[in-house]
């Protein structure tokens, strides 16, 4: 699937051929703010794909109960608690709407 290709790209890219500082993400992969995971390595992708086990099916979770509290003036903080085990976190989408009163 496209998700498996996404993982293969991330796991086999060469981050050392990029410019700029590298940091480690939550999965322990080297990543650059400017260049992501680095230069794609087609040979490494094909080699790893030969033994690849597909990632589990995509599961979506929607959190709608969000607590809000005013911090200062018109600045707000929102917190959503999710307690299930997460083994693969691929994407986080945040949808929000903001209404600013005319007197601010």
TrEMBL record:
Coiled-coil blocks: none
Any one cellular component term from GO for this entry?
trans-Golgi network
A single GO molecular function term of this UniProt record: serine-type endopeptidase activity
The Gene Ontology biological process terms listed for this entry are: peptide hormone processing
Q: Entry's InterPro entries?
A: Peptidase_S8/S53_dom_sf (IPR036852)
Alphabetical list of Gene3D superfamilies matching this protein? Peptidase S8/S53 domain
Q: Which UniProt keywords apply?
A: Hydrolase, Protease, Serine protease
> Where is the secretion signal located?
none
Which protein are we looking at?
Answer: Proprotein convertase subtilisin/kexin type 6
């Amino acid at each position: 699937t496209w998700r498996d290709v996404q993982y293969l790209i991330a796991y086999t890219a060469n981050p050392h051929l990029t410019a700029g500082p590298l940091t480690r993400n939550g999965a322990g992969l080297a990543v650059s703010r400017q260049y992501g995971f680095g230069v794609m390595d087609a040979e490494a992708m094909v080699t790893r794909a030969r033994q690849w086990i597909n990632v589990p099916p995509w599961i979506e979770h929607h959190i709608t109960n969000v607590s809000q509290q005013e911090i200062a003036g018109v600045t707000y903080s929102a917190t959503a608690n999710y307690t299930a085990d997460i083994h693969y976190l691929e994407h986080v989408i945040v949808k929000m709407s903001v209404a600013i009163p005319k007197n601010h």
